[in-house]
Design a protein that fits this description.
Converts cobyric acid to cobinamide by the addition of aminopropanol on the F carboxylic group. It contains 11 helices and 2 strands, in the order ααααααααααββα. It has 320 residues and is mainly α. A two-stranded antiparallel ribbon has the order 1-2. α1 crosses α4, α5 (97-112) packs antiparallel against α11 and α8 packs parallel to α10. The longest helix is centred in the middle third of the chain and has 48 residues, at 136-183. It starts with a helix and ends with a helix.
Length: 320
Amino acid sequence: MPGRDRFSFAYGAALGFACDLLLGDPRRGHPVAAFGRAAQSVERRLWRDHRGYGTLHTLVCAGGAVAGAGLLARAARRHRAAEIALTAAATWSVLGGTSLGREARAIGGALAAGDVEVARERLPHLCGRDPQALDAQAIARAVVESVAENTSDAVVGALVWGALGGVPGLVGFRAVNTLDAMVGHKSPRLRRFGWASARLDDVVGWPGARLTAALTVLAGPDPRGALRVARRDASRHPSPNAGPVEAAFAGALGVRLGGTLAYAGRVEHRPVLGEENRPVRTADIERAVRLSRRVSLLALGAAVSARTVGSLFRNAGRNR
């Protein structure tokens, strides 16, 4: 039925975003957790200390997720209500903005109460840093950096790919991002096997990271500071996608990010982003969460608008 896709994605994405906003991640039967278990099973069968086998693992897992989502989307097109419901379910499943905010605020609450040990216990729920190596100020900085990076990874990037590819785009982005979290880190066992997942995550995360940085400039309390630090410092970060986002957040919030980090016994010395700004304080965690929420809402609007306009142009082309 021509034109029906025009608003189906908009309704479904908005409904799925609202579900994440009100309910957070599904508590049972989370599709991302199910995908993770399936990917682990494939990894056990395919693992070799070889890039080729890692590439095959990525293709099987991410390609299978996209293919399955594509079949469901094709079947749902016959009924508008089913199409909207599938888009809403996929959007809710792949977004993680509310859970991100909850974890960040829980750590911020512990720090505000002076309970650094509780903050250390909760930090691994948010990022992979070694919490025992961090004092209260370093924990607060880690939280703000994680909120910034995950605004792109857990919200904006998924919405961008939803706008580009509908339900398969939503699912494919989350599948690649999950694989990177599972095998894309530089441990001796996964340095070669996880190479393909890490590189593919860099590719699919590129547009979402740039949109996140741009929206941070628009939505932040200091647009000029955000633009200045993002333009100057983004390329100094070792990650091509975390760099623009963290630099924009540093400038928008007027804080310093980056510096020395510890990951499971491995120490990294990263460039400082926003070196002219003050150190992160505990209160900046709440400011970062609120900025993340504003950026996420703007990203939803941008994704819905882009998908709707694209549908209008496609339908106009068919009717000529």
